[in-house]
Amino acid sequence: MAVAPPVTGQPMATQWMAAPQAPPNCPPGLEYLALVDQLLVHQQTELLEAFIGFETNNKYDIKNSMGQRVYLAAEDTNCCTRNICGPSRPFEIKILDNTNREVMRLERPLRCSTCWCPCCLQRVEVQAPPGEVIGYVKQGWSICKPKFWIQNAAGEDILRIDGPCFTCSICGDVEFDVSSHDGSSPVGRISKQWSGLIKEAFTDADNFGVTFPIDLDVRVKATTLAATFLIDFMFFEKKGNEEKDAPGMLS
Predict the structure, then answer these.
(1) Chain-centre distance for alpha carbon 216
(2) pLDDT digits (tens, 9 = 90+) for 35-82
(3) What is the b/e burial string over 184-222, where b = at least 16 CB atoms within 10 angstroms of the residue's CB?
Protein backbone atom coordinates (compact mmCIF):
# COMPACT_ATOMS: atom_id res chain seq x y z
CA MET A 1 0.00 0.00 0.00
CA ALA A 2 1.36 3.37 -1.02
CA VAL A 3 2.24 5.78 1.77
CA ALA A 4 1.11 9.37 1.33
CA PRO A 5 3.97 11.87 1.35
CA PRO A 6 4.17 14.20 4.34
CA VAL A 7 2.29 17.43 4.00
CA THR A 8 4.61 20.42 3.85
CA GLY A 9 4.09 24.13 3.93
CA GLN A 10 1.55 24.08 6.75
CA PRO A 11 2.18 26.41 9.72
CA MET A 12 3.36 24.68 12.87
CA ALA A 13 1.40 25.11 16.07
CA THR A 14 2.99 27.44 18.59
CA GLN A 15 4.74 25.56 21.36
CA TRP A 16 3.96 26.54 24.92
CA MET A 17 6.66 26.97 27.53
CA ALA A 18 6.70 24.05 29.96
CA ALA A 19 5.32 24.92 33.39
CA PRO A 20 8.21 25.23 35.87
CA GLN A 21 8.15 24.56 39.58
CA ALA A 22 6.90 27.62 41.43
CA PRO A 23 9.47 29.35 43.66
CA PRO A 24 8.48 30.16 47.26
CA ASN A 25 6.00 33.00 47.77
CA CYS A 26 5.24 33.25 44.04
CA PRO A 27 1.74 34.24 42.92
CA PRO A 28 0.16 31.34 41.00
CA GLY A 29 0.90 31.60 37.29
CA LEU A 30 3.91 33.90 37.63
CA GLU A 31 6.38 31.02 38.04
CA TYR A 32 7.05 31.22 34.29
CA LEU A 33 8.58 34.66 34.79
CA ALA A 34 11.13 33.33 37.27
CA LEU A 35 12.98 31.57 34.42
CA VAL A 36 13.12 34.34 31.82
CA ASP A 37 15.13 37.52 31.34
CA GLN A 38 13.44 38.46 28.07
CA LEU A 39 9.87 38.50 26.78
CA LEU A 40 8.63 39.09 23.24
CA VAL A 41 5.18 40.66 22.93
CA HIS A 42 3.56 40.27 19.51
CA GLN A 43 0.23 41.93 18.85
CA GLN A 44 -2.03 39.86 16.61
CA THR A 45 -3.15 41.44 13.34
CA GLU A 46 -6.91 42.01 13.07
CA LEU A 47 -8.04 42.09 9.42
CA LEU A 48 -11.26 43.99 10.12
CA GLU A 49 -9.28 46.71 11.85
CA ALA A 50 -6.63 46.83 9.13
CA PHE A 51 -9.08 47.21 6.23
CA ILE A 52 -11.84 49.48 7.55
CA GLY A 53 -10.37 50.94 10.73
CA PHE A 54 -13.01 49.39 13.02
CA GLU A 55 -11.31 49.12 16.42
CA THR A 56 -11.32 45.57 17.83
CA ASN A 57 -10.07 44.17 21.10
CA ASN A 58 -6.29 43.82 21.09
CA LYS A 59 -4.74 40.38 21.48
CA TYR A 60 -1.09 39.59 22.15
CA ASP A 61 1.20 36.57 22.14
CA ILE A 62 3.80 36.72 24.91
CA LYS A 63 6.79 34.49 24.19
CA ASN A 64 10.20 33.74 25.64
CA SER A 65 13.49 34.15 23.78
CA MET A 66 13.13 30.66 22.24
CA GLY A 67 9.78 31.52 20.68
CA GLN A 68 7.77 29.44 23.15
CA ARG A 69 4.47 30.99 24.18
CA VAL A 70 4.40 31.98 27.84
CA TYR A 71 1.05 33.76 27.98
CA LEU A 72 -1.83 35.03 25.87
CA ALA A 73 -3.14 38.52 26.57
CA ALA A 74 -6.61 39.62 25.53
CA GLU A 75 -8.25 43.02 25.93
CA ASP A 76 -11.83 43.00 27.22
CA THR A 77 -13.41 46.36 26.31
CA ASN A 78 -16.83 47.07 24.84
CA CYS A 79 -17.30 48.20 21.25
CA CYS A 80 -18.47 51.74 22.01
CA THR A 81 -15.54 52.45 24.33
CA ARG A 82 -12.99 51.16 21.80
CA ASN A 83 -14.30 53.16 18.87
CA ILE A 84 -15.16 56.39 20.68
CA CYS A 85 -12.18 56.71 23.00
CA GLY A 86 -9.66 55.05 20.67
CA PRO A 87 -6.16 54.57 22.12
CA SER A 88 -7.08 56.66 25.20
CA ARG A 89 -9.75 54.17 26.22
CA PRO A 90 -9.85 52.51 29.61
CA PHE A 91 -9.12 48.81 29.33
CA GLU A 92 -9.02 45.51 31.11
CA ILE A 93 -6.47 43.04 29.81
CA LYS A 94 -6.62 39.42 30.89
CA ILE A 95 -3.42 37.38 30.72
CA LEU A 96 -3.87 33.61 30.38
CA ASP A 97 -1.53 30.65 30.69
CA ASN A 98 -1.51 27.42 28.65
CA THR A 99 -4.46 26.00 30.64
CA ASN A 100 -6.55 29.09 29.83
CA ARG A 101 -6.28 30.15 33.47
CA GLU A 102 -6.31 33.90 34.06
CA VAL A 103 -3.07 34.55 35.93
CA MET A 104 -2.94 38.35 35.63
CA ARG A 105 -5.35 41.20 35.09
CA LEU A 106 -4.43 44.73 34.06
CA GLU A 107 -6.88 47.57 34.66
CA ARG A 108 -6.51 51.04 33.19
CA PRO A 109 -9.09 53.70 34.13
CA LEU A 110 -10.02 56.59 31.84
CA ARG A 111 -7.48 59.34 32.57
CA CYS A 112 -5.40 61.97 30.80
CA SER A 113 -1.95 61.39 29.31
CA THR A 114 -0.91 64.82 28.11
CA CYS A 115 1.54 67.01 30.00
CA TRP A 116 -1.16 69.70 30.18
CA CYS A 117 -3.09 67.66 32.77
CA PRO A 118 -0.45 66.59 35.33
CA CYS A 119 -2.97 65.88 38.09
CA CYS A 120 -4.73 62.98 36.34
CA LEU A 121 -2.08 61.02 34.45
CA GLN A 122 -2.14 57.37 33.39
CA ARG A 123 -2.06 54.49 35.86
CA VAL A 124 -2.43 50.74 35.38
CA GLU A 125 -3.24 48.41 38.25
CA VAL A 126 -1.64 44.95 38.04
CA GLN A 127 -3.37 42.02 39.74
CA ALA A 128 -1.98 38.50 40.11
CA PRO A 129 -4.07 36.50 40.63
CA PRO A 130 -7.10 38.63 39.66
CA GLY A 131 -8.30 40.55 42.68
CA GLU A 132 -4.90 40.72 44.40
CA VAL A 133 -2.87 43.85 43.57
CA ILE A 134 0.88 43.29 43.12
CA GLY A 135 1.88 46.63 41.59
CA TYR A 136 1.13 49.69 39.51
CA VAL A 137 2.46 51.42 36.42
CA LYS A 138 2.27 55.16 36.98
CA GLN A 139 2.93 57.84 34.38
CA GLY A 140 5.25 60.59 35.58
CA TRP A 141 4.76 64.20 34.59
CA SER A 142 7.10 65.23 31.78
CA ILE A 143 7.06 67.62 28.84
CA CYS A 144 9.80 66.35 26.55
CA LYS A 145 10.22 62.64 27.28
CA PRO A 146 7.79 59.95 28.44
CA LYS A 147 8.40 58.82 32.01
CA PHE A 148 6.81 56.04 34.04
CA TRP A 149 7.25 54.48 37.46
CA ILE A 150 7.02 50.80 38.34
CA GLN A 151 5.50 50.60 41.82
CA ASN A 152 4.85 47.81 44.28
CA ALA A 153 1.46 47.05 45.83
CA ALA A 154 2.01 49.77 48.45
CA GLY A 155 2.55 52.41 45.76
CA GLU A 156 6.30 52.71 46.41
CA ASP A 157 8.56 53.42 43.44
CA ILE A 158 10.72 50.41 42.49
CA LEU A 159 11.89 51.19 38.94
CA ARG A 160 11.58 54.06 36.47
CA ILE A 161 11.10 54.01 32.69
CA ASP A 162 12.40 56.80 30.46
CA GLY A 163 11.38 57.02 26.82
CA PRO A 164 12.79 59.02 23.90
CA CYS A 165 11.75 62.52 22.96
CA PHE A 166 10.41 61.24 19.62
CA THR A 167 8.46 57.98 19.64
CA CYS A 168 8.10 57.83 15.86
CA SER A 169 9.09 54.34 14.67
CA ILE A 170 10.69 55.11 11.30
CA CYS A 171 12.67 52.06 10.11
CA GLY A 172 14.04 51.38 13.58
CA ASP A 173 13.31 50.38 17.15
CA VAL A 174 12.00 52.81 19.76
CA GLU A 175 13.58 52.16 23.14
CA PHE A 176 12.34 52.87 26.65
CA ASP A 177 15.09 52.43 29.24
CA VAL A 178 14.29 50.76 32.56
CA SER A 179 16.48 51.77 35.51
CA SER A 180 16.55 51.87 39.30
CA HIS A 181 14.04 54.24 40.90
CA ASP A 182 16.68 57.00 41.17
CA GLY A 183 17.85 56.45 37.58
CA SER A 184 21.42 55.59 38.62
CA SER A 185 21.57 51.94 37.49
CA PRO A 186 20.26 50.42 34.24
CA VAL A 187 17.97 47.44 34.79
CA GLY A 188 16.44 46.58 31.43
CA ARG A 189 14.63 47.90 28.40
CA ILE A 190 11.27 47.94 26.62
CA SER A 191 11.78 48.14 22.86
CA LYS A 192 9.10 48.76 20.28
CA GLN A 193 10.52 46.74 17.39
CA TRP A 194 10.28 47.77 13.75
CA SER A 195 7.82 45.37 12.05
CA GLY A 196 8.38 46.24 8.41
CA LEU A 197 7.00 48.97 6.17
CA ILE A 198 3.71 47.29 5.18
CA LYS A 199 2.75 46.20 8.68
CA GLU A 200 3.71 49.53 10.21
CA ALA A 201 1.81 51.53 7.60
CA PHE A 202 -1.45 49.59 7.46
CA THR A 203 -1.91 48.01 10.89
CA ASP A 204 -1.31 48.81 14.53
CA ALA A 205 -0.10 45.28 15.30
CA ASP A 206 3.12 46.07 17.14
CA ASN A 207 6.01 43.95 18.39
CA PHE A 208 7.86 44.63 21.63
CA GLY A 209 10.85 43.19 23.41
CA VAL A 210 11.15 43.39 27.20
CA THR A 211 14.42 42.65 29.03
CA PHE A 212 15.17 42.54 32.75
CA PRO A 213 17.51 40.66 35.13
CA ILE A 214 16.58 37.01 35.54
CA ASP A 215 16.68 37.35 39.33
CA LEU A 216 14.27 40.31 39.40
CA ASP A 217 11.19 39.66 41.54
CA VAL A 218 8.40 38.10 39.46
CA ARG A 219 5.96 40.78 40.64
CA VAL A 220 8.24 43.51 39.30
CA LYS A 221 8.66 41.57 36.04
CA ALA A 222 4.89 41.29 35.69
CA THR A 223 4.44 45.02 36.34
CA THR A 224 7.15 45.85 33.78
CA LEU A 225 5.29 43.68 31.28
CA ALA A 226 2.14 45.66 32.08
CA ALA A 227 4.02 48.88 31.28
CA THR A 228 4.57 47.51 27.76
CA PHE A 229 0.83 47.45 27.09
CA LEU A 230 0.35 50.99 28.42
CA ILE A 231 3.22 52.23 26.22
CA ASP A 232 1.66 50.50 23.21
CA PHE A 233 -1.71 52.18 23.75
CA MET A 234 -0.26 55.61 24.48
CA PHE A 235 2.28 55.89 21.66
CA PHE A 236 1.76 53.23 18.99
CA GLU A 237 -1.95 52.44 18.86
CA LYS A 238 -3.74 54.03 15.90
CA LYS A 239 -7.26 55.39 15.69
CA GLY A 240 -8.90 54.69 12.35
CA ASN A 241 -5.48 53.72 10.90
CA GLU A 242 -4.19 57.25 11.55
CA GLU A 243 -0.74 57.73 13.03
CA LYS A 244 -0.62 59.58 16.37
CA ASP A 245 3.14 59.87 16.81
CA ALA A 246 4.10 63.26 18.25
CA PRO A 247 7.10 64.82 20.00
CA GLY A 248 7.37 64.03 23.70
CA MET A 249 4.17 64.29 25.74
CA LEU A 250 2.58 67.16 23.81
CA SER A 251 -0.04 65.05 22.04
Answers:
(1) 18
(2) 999 999 999 877 655 555 567 899 999 999 999 999 999 999 988 888
(3) eeebbbbbbbbbeeeebeebbbbbbbbbbeeebbbbbbb
CA distances from 114 to 88, 142, 145, 250 (A): 11, 9, 11, 6
Does residue 138 contact residue 160 with C-beta atoms inside 8 Å?
A: no
Gap between the Cα atoms of 196 and 172, Å rounded: 9
CA angle 73-27-99, nearest 5°?
45
- What's the pTM value of the predicted model, to 2 decimals? 0.86
Do the beta carbons of residue 148 and residue 161 sit within 8 Å?
A: yes
Give residues with Cβ within 8 angstroms of 204, minimum separation 6. Answer: 43, 49, 236, 237, 238, 241
Among 150, 122, 152, 168, residue whose Cα is nearest residue 210:
150
Grouping H, G, I as helix, E, B as strand and the rest as coil, residue 93 is strand
Rounded to a whole number of angstroms, the distance between the first and last alpha carbons of the chain is 69
Burial class (CB in 10 A: 0-12, 13-18, 19+), 1: exposed
